[in-house]
Specification:
By secondary structure, the chain is an alpha+beta fold. About 35% of the residues lie in helices and about 15% in strands. The chain has 22 helices and 18 strands. The strands form four sheets. An eight-stranded antiparallel beta sheet has the order 16-15-14-13-9-12-11-17. A hairpin with a 4-residue loop joins strand 11 and strand 12. Helix 9 runs antiparallel to helix 10 and helix 14 runs antiparallel to helix 15. The longest helix has 19 residues. It is elongated, with a radius of gyration of 33 Å.
């Protein structure tokens, strides 16, 4: 704000009149409040230049510009927000001089060298500040003479003993007063709906409600940053719709507005958006949805049954966002792609139909229910959420945004890069995979399932796979090596099964599943990669129609075994496997994966494997049972 052109007379008059009108919603008024209500003025008479000069002589300094201009309109102020009942004029303002005795403790805390500069700048505040609060609810209002802006304004620091936080900073006295006017509005708006209380309506509320309407249109036209600015302002004034609209923008990665009311069945978005999102928030913070009142048929007879189904589906991870119409049909199509790993194609479908999306009511500006869908939520990366927000929709027009880039790198060699299967991890992750030609992903359990009738799980996050298939497992055997394979499509005509961090490769009893996987007549490729247990290892085996074609295993740079006619491009020597150097091994493994991808046209979806949810199953053992005279180890935990 421009403090030089700030109209104090207009601002303080409007505030006083709004305050006076709001007192009709209150009970008994104190004599002072009653007098202020009748005269419709919260201030005092203007301070004269002589008053201000005497004050500055007493303080030994010039006061900051916006405080000076305020005093020229009112020499003090009552009810600055909800917790400061009297602000100082020329006679009451005084140096605080650590009268509260807080300086030593706070200076020690603020002065820690590890603190950011803005925190350390507060050291000495309690000794040097000019105190403006005269009567308050344990709240200090302090002007800081050492925090001065280029316009000569002193920052205001506000601290309350009942708030567990550092003092809140305002760049000037004028901005502090605007914030206190907003606080007054926010508190009064919170009283709307109280029994017998008249609605809090005035020029300011009408202007802010109109701004919310403009923000809604701007958001639907893709101008979400402009909308967020309008909504943040309206939220500070306590306008009820602003928080909900701002929350939707924030959910999709735009400027975030804190605070959100619990869902209520009276809202048309309750079953499709609000309840699923509320449940997702709870489950995401490792809390239970059990006990939520929405499934209570006595309280909500019309929606309780559907709500109970949604809460159960959210807990099980089987919830499906069902918006309906042409947009809903596209959501179903995108989900079908995403659940088999093709998240890029899923987003391309969603991107195309976002302009067709229609809101369910005036407080609905985006299909945020997508974020509650366990399969589709990971598809909406931060970049894609921004693209969605910037896409005109809901019948509004505007320029199309720049499309977000695809997420999957293509091919297979990304597996050997740092953080390949574990984002944020510097080194590659151990893995094993099987690629199957001519079989759909849901056919893999029939080829490789650990038992007849092996079924796919619901789509799971990678860290939930083990717990789903082997809940409470306590017994482990060295001869039984069943893989937990997450499955999906690996390119045209191919499917994959991948397990990260598998058991250690045992070459003496290893049985490649390639032959079983290729029993349908197509080809199958098995790759097993280890990095440090005890030396880097890379295995490839290929079969067709149930018969092996070729295989090789490289351990510590040396070919441990090989069989069949290995293609020239996959010859370990050609690939560069040699001395057990990690960098050389990684480079050779990358060349092998590139060669496999080029030869067979296969790929793996990185986003789905690392952040998404995929179906999974328990495979046959990748090691044979012990032979006669061979020993094995079985460990039971607990």
């Amino acid at each position: 704000m421009d403090t030089k052109t700030f109209d104090w007379r207009q601002f303080l008059t409007r505030w006083s009149e709004e305050w006076a009108d709001a007192q009709g919603r209150s009970g008994d008024l104190s004599p002072d409040d009653l007098e202020d209500q009748q005269r419709r003025w919260l201030g005092a008479a203007p301070a004269t230049d002589t008053d201000i000069a005497r004050m500055e002589a007493r303080l030994g300094c010039e006061i900051p510009p916006s405080y000076r201009e305020f005093l020229r309109v009112s020499d003090g102020w009552r009810h600055a927000g909800g917790f400061v009942w009297m602000l100082a004029g020329t006679r009451e303002a005084h140096w605080h001089e650590d009268a509260s005795g807080l300086g030593e403790d706070y200076d020690e805390f603020w002065g820690d060298e590890d603190n950011p500069e803005e925190t350390r700048a507060q050291v000495g505040l309690w000794s040097r500040a000019l105190q403006l609060d005269v009567q308050s609810d344990a709240t200090y209002v302090l002007l800081d003479p050492e925090d001065v802006g280029p316009d000569g304004e002193w920052a205001v620091r506000v601290w309350s003993s009942w708030r567990a936080s550092d003092p809140e900073r305002y760049p000037s006295f004028a901005e502090f007063m605007v914030a206190m006017h907003q606080e007054f509005h926010h508190l009064e708006a919170g009283r709307d709906g109280e029994r017998g209380a008249a609605a809090f309506v005035n020029g300011t509320t009408r202007a802010q409600d109109a701004a919310v309407d403009r923000a809604r249109i701007a958001a639907l036209r893709g101008r979400y940053e402009e909308a967020a600015e309008l909504l943040r302002e309206a939220q500070r004034y306590g306008r009820p719709r602003a928080t909900e609209l701002l929350h939707q923008i924030g959910q999709l990665g735009g400027p975030y507005g804190a605070g959100r009311r619990p869902p209520h069945p009276s809202d048309p978005r309750f079953l499709t958006e609000l309840l699923p999102l509320h449940a997702a928030d709870l489950l995401g913070s490792h809390r239970s949805v059990d006990g939520l009142p929405f499934a209570d048929a006595d309280r909500f007879p019309e929606t309780a049954r559907a709500a109970a189904d949604i809460l159960r589906e959210m807990t099980e991870g089987t919830f499906r966002y069902r918006p309906g119409g042409a947009f809903g049909e596209a959501v179903d199509e995108a989900r079908e792609l995403a659940r088999w790993g093709d998240t890029d194609a899923a987003w391309r479908i969603l991107r195309t139909v976002v302009p067709m999306w229609e809101p369910l009511g005036p407080d609905h500006i985006a299909p945020v229910g997508l974020l509650a869908d366990p399969v589709l939520a990971p598809v909406l990366t931060a970049e894609r959420r921004s693209e969605l927000l910037a896409t005109p929709r809901g019948g509004e027009q505007g320029p199309a945004p720049v499309p977000a880039r695809d997420q999957d790198p293509g091919g297979l060699s990304w597996l050997v890069r740092g953080g390949g299967l574990r984002p944020g991890q510097s080194s590659p992750c151990d893995y094993r995979m099987v690629l199957v030609e001519g079989a759909a992903p849901d056919e893999l359990p029939g080829l490789l399932g650990s038992s007849p009738g092996t079924a796919l799980s619901p789509p799971l996050r990678r860290w939930d796979v083990s717990g789903h298939h082997r809940p409470g497992q306590r017994r482990f055997s060295s001869y039984d090596d069943k893989a937990l394979l997450s499955v999906g499509r690996a390119g045209a005509g191919w499917s994959f099964g991948v397990e990260e961090s598998p058991a250690r490769f045992s070459s003496d009893r290893f049985v490649s599943p390639a032959q079983a996987a290729s029993a349908g007549g197509g080809r199958a490729i098995v790759v097993w990669s280890e990095w440090n247990r005890p030396a880097p290892l890379f295995h490839v085996s290929v079969a067709r129609g149930g018969a092996p074609l070729y295989a090789f295993t490289v351990r510590a740079g040396a070919v441990e075994d090989s069989s069949g006619a290995i293609p020239a491009e996959l010859d370990p020597a050609v690939l560069g496997f040699g001395p057990p150097d990690m960098a050389a091994h990684a480079a050779a493994a990358a060349r092998a994966l590139d060669a496999i991808a080029d030869e067979y046209g296969v790929t793996l979806p990185r986003l789905a494997l690392t952040e998404g949810r995929l179906h999974s199953f328990e495979s046959v053992s990748w090691t044979r049972p012990p032979g006669s005279g061979e020993t094995y180890l079985t460990v039971t935990m607990g």
